Amino acid sequence: MRPRRIKPISHEDEISLVDHLDELRARIVTSLSVFGVALALCFWQNHLLLEFAGAALPKGHEKLITFGVTEPFTTTVTVSAYAAIILSLPIILYQLYAYLLPAFSKQQQRAILPLLLLIPALFIAGVAFGYFVVLPAATTFLLNFNDAQFNIQVQAKEYYGFFAQTLLACGLVFQIPVGILAVTRLGIVRVDQLTSNRRYAYLACAVIAAALPGVDPVSMLLETAPLIVLYELSIVLARVFGQPAPLSEPAASES
């Protein structure tokens, strides 16, 4: 059975619950298909992925250890799955936003659509920041902490999970400007509220950084700093682009 072709839906269209569920099924199938293609590609090039992930380790720890007969294979599949998630996530997020977008009016859609272009760019920037800044500092600190007292060996399964979760978390938290711009353009939050509650926002950034992968203070500080910078950048962008769009003339004349 061929999957149903996704038909664009406008805010004015009246469709049944069955049509809603049918569209949701089609978008889920599309997302799973994209993930499947990304998984096949990543597993095909798994040796490059493993080399790419291992490059973030400090010298002397590049050779990871495994336990058991099946762990090299299962670890490779897990790394390929993590990489496929990161690779396909922008398209999956687009499918989610495209499904929810018709619920907003045309005026709200005009306010949100430009922000969708920022999603993949910020996600890639977050992943790059996690790979080039957070991971090298975190692994160097953790693997050299009390190293004279321990015979430190890095297990492949644990490290690759930490590696992928850190990159995924950094990519997601870099979406903060999109969220803040969206709520300001929709008129849900005002810019002066963002500035007056800055101290609480900083505290929230620290809490979010503490909840991200990594238990060391270096990771927490490196993840808190960009969150605060992104929040301040969001305020600047909200002042310039985030003002609610004016009401249309017919709506204004009726009021």
Question: What's the topology here?
Answer:
Layout: H1 17-44, H2 46-54, H3 71-100, H4 106-116, H5 118-143, H6 156-173, H7 176-185, H8 191-196, H9 198-211, H10 217-241, H11 249-254
Please tell me about this protein's structure.
The longest helix has 30 residues, at 71-100. The chain is flat. Helix 1 (17-44) packs antiparallel against helix 3, helix 4 runs antiparallel to helix 7 (176-185) and helix 9 (198-211) packs across helix 10. It has 255 residues and is mostly helical. The chain is 72% helix and 0% strand. The chain has one domain (17-245).
Brief overview:
The chain is 72% helix and 0% strand.
Summarize this structure as a short list of keywords or feature phrases.
255 residues, 11 helices, 0% strand, disordered C terminus
Q: Radius of gyration in whole Å, from Cα? A: 22 Å
Distance between the termini: 51 Å
Number of domains: 1
Q: Helix count? A: 11
The tally of beta strands, per DSSP, is 0
Beta-strand level of the residues, as a percent range?
A: under 5%
Q: Give the topology string: H per helix, E per strand.
A: HHHHHHHHHHH
Average of pLDDT: 78
Tell the overall outline.
flat
Low-confidence stretches: 247-255
* Helix/strand structural class: mainly alpha
Biggest β-sheet strands, sense, barrel: none
Helix content class: over 70%
